[in-house]
Amino acid sequence: MAGQCYSVSVVSVSCLPSNTATRNITLVTHPDSFNIDVASTSHGFSLMINLSNYVENGIYRIMTNVTWLRFLHCNNGLGSSNVTDQTYDVNPMNLSITGLVPNSEYNMTVVVSNALGSRTESFSNQTQPAAPSAPPQDIVAVNQTLFTITISWQPVDCAHQNGNITGYEIRYRKKDGGNTEAMSDIMGAHYTLTDLQPSTAYLIQVAANNTAGRGVFGNISASTLFEVHVISTTSTSINISWAEVDYEVLITWISTLSSHCTQNIDQSLKNDSVNGKSSYVIDGLKVFTEYNITLCINGSICTFKTVVTNATAPSAPPKGMSWEGSSSTNITIKWDPVPCADRNGNITSYVVMFRENGKEMFHNETTTGVDMEFTITGLAPSTEYEIKVAAFTVAVGPFTNESFFASTTGSYMHN
């Protein structure tokens, strides 16, 4: 029997002996062209590769190299890559590339090869957005009142935004339980919660939204203040009160400045605690001095008060009286200030007391300002006068205790 011949390639013919059984031969061809359909998800791509000259039962190797280029929502880049290497004997060939970054642009290279050679295609594609995978950063309470809490935050870190941020959602409730309130579509990076209850701790949550959905909530605790009233003040004490609470109240106070003097300010912080009370008298304070008072309950809910103790009359007279000149009916005198620590208030005027030397009755004149110079008028010519001066705050302080004499003749004498 004559031998049989089979065409096994385009360029050669092979003849088998007559006693050889026939069999199918798979022809392998070069993968000269293929189509790729790409479907994107938030974390990867699905590829369908369709060879135009696929040979049944052929073994094909598919290699992909996916390189991360950039976020679509910010300018940061990581430069990471994802490589796969698989073999297939079917057409079309389906493969998945996972573990990618949402809302990002990638360069993709696909290499299809077999025993005869390979073909490469390169293109770019984008993953889909996903909900933010982290909360906003640096959530803090920036202001608290009796009935409001204002919070602020920074954007979600770029690597976790996973899309363009479209707004924020806030949820809050009392820390010890109760209904949760929610606000959405908040723009900006701060918000004020209103109509809250005084002296109450709240759990506050903030999450960012993008086109894919709501992200992760970040939590803080913050409290409204509790109301403190100043019942009364004296020159050395402050009486305060508050609504009674079932917690220990820690009271601290410190003098910040003297309202009339910056010298000798006691900056030491003092404190006391009370339980089961709703009022407290802080005593032993300095006259006409500003104090910052802080009250805290339950170790965290605090309120603040700035109070000034009352002024009193100066506790010392002016210093350094001197004669500045005279005429036949006038005498002009000057003096130095009351020492700072003895003023006990804002000096608003001075009282000048004078009499003819040797007489009992003094005459009084009050200055109309704080100038430390005064001209006594309407005096008798060639007459010596005894003169004293005192400062006035809310009351008249002591007069100068050393006798000071001046004469309308221009002479100056003292005892």
UniProtKB/TrEMBL annotation:
Protein species of origin: Geodia barretti (Barrett's horny sponge)
Which domain of life, per UniProt? Eukaryota
Under the heading PROSITE patterns, the entry gives: FN3 (PS50853)
Domain Fibronectin type-III span(s) in chain numbering = 135-231, 317-411
What name has this protein been given in UniProt? Netrin receptor DCC
Keywords, A to Z, come to:
Disulfide bond, Glycoprotein, Receptor, Repeat, Signal
Molecular function as annotated in GO: cytokine binding; cytokine receptor activity
Q: Which InterPro entries match?
A: FN3_dom (IPR003961), FN3_sf (IPR036116), Ig-like_fold (IPR013783), Type-I_Cytokine_Rcpt (IPR050379)
Answer yes or no on keyword Ubl conjugation.
Answer: no
Please provide one cellular component term from the Gene Ontology annotations of this protein.
external side of plasma membrane
Task: Tell me the leader sequence span.
Answer: none
